[in-house]
Amino acid sequence: MGEFLTGLYPWTKVLHVISVIAWMSGLFYLPRLFVYHTEKAKAGAVLTDTFELMERRLLRAIMNPAMIATWTFGMLLVFTPGLVDWTSAWPWSKAFGVLGMTWFHHWLGLRRKELAAGTCNVTARRFRIMNELPTVFLVVIVTSVIVRF
Ligand code: HEM
User: Fold this and answer.
1) Number of the ligand 1 atom closest to the C-alpha atom of 102
2) Residue 13 CA, ligand 1 centroid: distance in Å
3) How far, in Å, is the centroid of ligand 1 from the Cα of 87?
4) Given this model, what pLDDT does residue 115 score?
5) Mutational pocket test of ligand 1: of 5, 24, 77, 144, the residue with most ligand atoms within 8 Å of the beta carbon
6) Does the Cβ of 15 fall within 6 Å of ligand 1?
């Protein structure tokens, strides 16, 4: 199994990084859509229907599959021999960032359902602030995997 994963390593990493980019694009864009959606909530049904469609498609067609792919290829990298030294700090700080990113994804998913049901109490300003969170996790994760302290 170890030898098999070592042979696959460059391709596992290629697929991991591609999935990460797709996932991140959604994590940055969806809260932006929520800001506009919340600000224009009273503008009329046609506009809010359009926002709901864009949000649902972004989450289902891009973000959910990209998150699953990131986790799958990431775990294959974890099980590839010689890559992760659990006595170092970086795998733990990376895990913290990844769990934070995954929590944020689910937070957005719940807000999407509330927005579609008309029961969301989060303000546009709060969505703007939350929009900065994936950047913080991204800095933690990329610093962890590249600096490897
Ligand atoms: C979801 C769970 C994840 C797991 C289990 C995971 C695991 C890993 C592992 C073990 C490596 C090391 C590969 C090596 O040593 O060559 C790696 C590489 C990498 N990961 Fe993740 N990862 C995850 C999510 C993420 C996320 C969310 C990001 C970015 C936001 C990310 C960005 C990267 C990058 C850029 C590399 C390449 C670093 C290099 O040049 O070696 N990963 N990942």
Assistant:
1) 1
2) 8
3) 17
4) 94
5) 77
6) no
pTM of the model: 0.93
How confident is the model at residue 47, as a pLDDT? 84
Q: What Å distances lie between residue 97 and 44, 47, 48, 83, 134, CA to CA?
A: 38, 35, 33, 18, 9
Q: What is the pLDDT of residue 43?
A: 64
Does 76 contact ligand 1 (Cβ within 6 A)? Answer: no
- What distance in Å separates the CA atoms of residue 148 and residue 1, rounded to the nearest whole number? 25
Question: Would you tell me how many other CB atoms lie within 10 Å of the CB of residue 24?
Answer: 19
pLDDT tens digit sequence for 80-133: 999 999 999 999 999 999 999 999 999 999 999 999 998 999 999 999 999 999
Q: With a 6 A CB cut-off, is 71 part of the ligand 1 pocket?
A: yes
Rounded CA-CA distance 87/77 in Å is 17
